[in-house]
Amino acid sequence: MRRDLRFKDNHALFEALEADEPVVPLFIFDRDILDELPEDDARVTFIYERLEDLRDKIDGQVFEFIYDEPLKAWEQVIEKYEVKKVFANHDYEPYADERDEQVRDLLEGHDIVFETFKDQVIFEKLEVAKDDGTAYRVFTPYKKVWLAKYKKEGEQHFLSENRLSHILEGQPKFKLPTLKKMGFSGFKYEDMPTKVVNKRTLQNYEDKRDFPAEEGTTRIGLHLRFGTVSIRDLVAKAMDESEVYLSELIWREFYAMILANFPHVVSEAFKAKYDNVPWRNDEEGFEKWCKGETGYPMVDAGMRQLNQTGYMHNRVRMVVASFLTKHLLIDWRWGEAYFAEKLLDYELASNNGGWQWAAGTGTDAQPYFRVFNPESQFNKFDPDEHYVKKWVPEYGTDDYVEPMVEHKSARQRAIDTYKEALDKADG
Fold first, then answer.
1. Selected catalytic residue, list 69, 155, 161, 248
2. What is the pLDDT of residues 262-292, one digit of tens each?
3. End-to-end CA distance of the chain
4. pLDDT tens per residue, range 337-376
5. Of 99, 119, 139, which residue is a domain's last?
6. Which residues lie below 8 Å from residue 298, measured CB to CB, with a gap of 6+?
7. One domain for residues 93 and 126
8. Could you tell me if 257 and 303 lie in one domain?
9. Is residue 171 in a domain?
10. Same domain, yes or no: 290 and 408
11. 169 falls within a domain
């Protein structure tokens, strides 16, 4: 089990339970990842608590946990168990691809079959492709084909919960390590989003989703990230209740497809000529943005919400990303890395896609000459100032900082800088 922390509708678990052998669930706390994280990383606490829930759900049956580097962990498993086959769900991020190839080589060296399955998306890689078999680069035609394929084929659910009795009974050979033993202090959540998508929320989604002071979004991103909910269940609900919310789920699939087919986006612009933009990369300005001290209320509210809760409303994510890349002309990779560190619902594909969209460097991106006005965004989407005043209590007093840049001149500077860089690249 990796980013699929559920027993219900889990494809790899279903396939394992269908085999005529006892099944042992395994979770590896990957030191290659965890040892680089701060001790209060909230995502580790979330994972840990979900694993405790799953272990308790099959009390009396074996659930194994190992804290180590992946290959060393698998060597321990092979030594302790007579393993015939390993089942896992696909992961599409570059690190995961490399890790899985190394694990596959190790297991095959011991005559152990390693099989992986599609689980975290409806359609992967090139399952939705152009007529010539190549990947889409623009969302709208991708969405059209995605919907047609889904309506034609439907979606199979994997009834893994029905067969949990096939999990091996007895005592585990590897006990769940404590957070403290792994170097983590734990994190106390102020607001843990539920993994139940409310029908009313979906019905009101189109009207309320852009207003950060409203409870108008599903807040399901964290659960999607770690697979505590099934994407198949979510899509089925969205098909019935909200075309707009369904479109957001398809955006997630689109960005996953982009990452799988164009892995250079991790460190480079999707559109190569945008790598010529001469970013200012002002460290002092970046620090003000990180702290929410820019003098623009919507930007500051969003950054403070992120820093305090690990969450930021999606409309506000677009505003703060546009401000960093356009108003401050700071490299989108700086902002992407900061979000990766702070967001509970961080997914590489969606985070990268969103940042490149805001910066104008990505597929189907906001054009470089479109620069969000953070003041008009504030007035339009937080007209009663409830969101801003919650996160920026000094707003409207003499204690609130002056704007660090003037919108009109910063906007023009961004447009001129981008245009010059693109003209050079073209010519």
1. 248
2. 999 999 999 999 999 999 989 999 999 999 9
3. 50
4. 999 999 999 999 999 999 999 999 999 777 888 899 999 9
5. 119
6. 316, 319, 320, 374, 375, 377, 378, 381, 382, 387, 388
7. no
8. no
9. no
10. yes
11. no
Query: Which listed residue (162, 281, 314, 379) is catalytic?
Result: 314
- Our count of domains for the chain comes to 3
**81 & 130 share domain:** no
Q: Which is the catalytic residue, given 146, 289, 355, 391?
A: 355
Q: Domain end: 261, 287, 315, which one?
A: 261
Q: Is 334 noted as a catalytic residue in this protein?
A: no
Measured CA to CA, the distance from residue 95 to residue 83 in angstroms comes to 25
Contact residues for 229 (Cβ-Cβ < 8 A; gap 6+): 6, 195, 197, 220, 223
Q: Which of 74, 146, 289, 332 is catalytic?
A: 332
Position of tokens 């990505």?
362
- Nearest to residue 65, comparing CAs of 175, 171, 179, 169? 175
Annotation marks residue 248 as catalytic: yes
Domain of 111?
A: 1-119
237 and 362 together in one domain: no
Q: In the annotation, is 314 catalytic? A: yes
Are residues 217 and 205 in contact, defined by beta-carbon separation less than 8 angstroms?
yes
One of 74, 251, 357, 391 is an active-site residue; which one? 251
Question: Of 49, 279, 293, 385, which one is the catalytic site residue?
Answer: 279
pLDDT per position as a tens digit, 75-123: 999 999 999 999 999 999 999 999 999 999 999 999 999 999 999 999 9
**Residue 371 belongs to a domain:** yes
Based on the domain organization, do 125 and 113 belong to the same domain? no
DSSP three-state, residue 89: strand
214, 292: one domain: no
- 289 labelled catalytic: no
Residues 105 and 22 grouped into a single domain: yes
Q: Is 332 a catalytic residue?
A: yes
Distance of alpha carbon 12 from alpha carbon 237, whole angstroms: 23
| Radius of gyration over every alpha carbon of the chain, rounded to an integer in angstroms | 23
In this prediction, what percent of the chain has a pLDDT beyond 70? 99
Q: Report if residue 266 sits inside a domain.
A: no
- Find out whether 128 and 256 touch, Cβ atoms under 8 Å: no
Please indicate whether residue 355 is annotated as part of the active site.
yes
